[in-house]
Amino acid sequence: MIRKLGKNKINISDWARNRYENEDFENMYGLNASKCSSTDDRFEFMFSQERPLDLIELEQLLQSVGWSRRPMRRVKKALDNSLLKVGLWQHDPKFPRLVGFARCTGDGVLHATVWDVAIHPVYQGFGLGKELMFYILRSLKRKGIERVFLFADPGVVAFYKSQGWQLEPKGSKCAFWYAN
Ligand SMILES: CC(C)(COP(=O)(O)OP(=O)(O)OC[C@H]1O[C@@H](n2cnc3c(N)ncnc32)[C@H](O)[C@@H]1OP(=O)(O)O)[C@@H](O)C(=O)NCCC(=O)NCCS
Questions:
Q1: Residues lining ligand 1, CB < 6 A?
Q2: Is 160 a catalytic residue?
Q3: Domain boundaries in the chain?
Q4: Rounded to an integer, what distance in angstroms lies between the CA atom of residue 90 and that of residue 2?
Q5: Predicted local distance difference test score (pLDDT) of residue 10
Q6: pTM for the full predicted model
Q7: First vs last Cα of the chain: how many Å apart?
Q8: Whose CA is nearest to atom 29 of ligand 1?
Q9: Ligand 1 centre and the CA of 38: distance in Å?
Q10: How far apart are alpha carbons 57 and 87 in whole angstroms?
Q11: Fold of 31-151
Q12: Atom 1, ligand 1: which residue's CA is nearest?
């Protein structure tokens, strides 16, 4: 990244610092990682689809928002079979912390469904959830996916609605089947 200063002068030390910083980010979060903006300027946050997820850390995150524990082996399989997995990391050069997560399943071409959207309670209210949803939709759009679905808990319907999601019309088009 090169930043022009003043009359088109390039500050070499800034350029070098940015370059090394970007290389560090790439090494930690993968080639397609991107920064996530937030209203909490104490921390830097990164989206990554490539940084390996620690299953225990992920389960702790999902439990922190009140979801019940799931068998680790099945979670691993579900992740392996997902179309898209996004970790949101609070950046730290030594110990990045997983503070948000979402994943999608689907056919990879036409339809996708979003699951497990979670932001750790300590980091809620700083715009991260909204950015995570934008990131997910951008990534799905790049794959050419035309329709995206999700199942919202009643307490978060307004969160999605404010971002342009529509409620399934008149409750007439949805069907569920549960094995148990
Ligand atoms: C829902 C969740 C992902 C939102 O994340 P967040 O980082 O706190 O949300 P943001 O800070 O990005 O909020 C963005 C906007 O949505 C609003 N918002 C956040 N949570 C909301 C909620 N539950 N209901 C209505 N609006 C909400 C915010 O006020 C903010 O509004 P603004 O843009 O006008 O300022 C997070 O609260 C969470 O992980 N909840 C527990 C797990 C969960 O229920 N996940 C959804 C499963 S369907």
A1: 65, 117-119, 124-130, 152-153, 155-156, 158-159, 162
A2: yes
A3: 31-151
A4: 25
A5: 43
A6: 0.90
A7: 53
A8: 125
A9: 13
A10: 11
A11: Aminopeptidase (3.40.630)
A12: 156
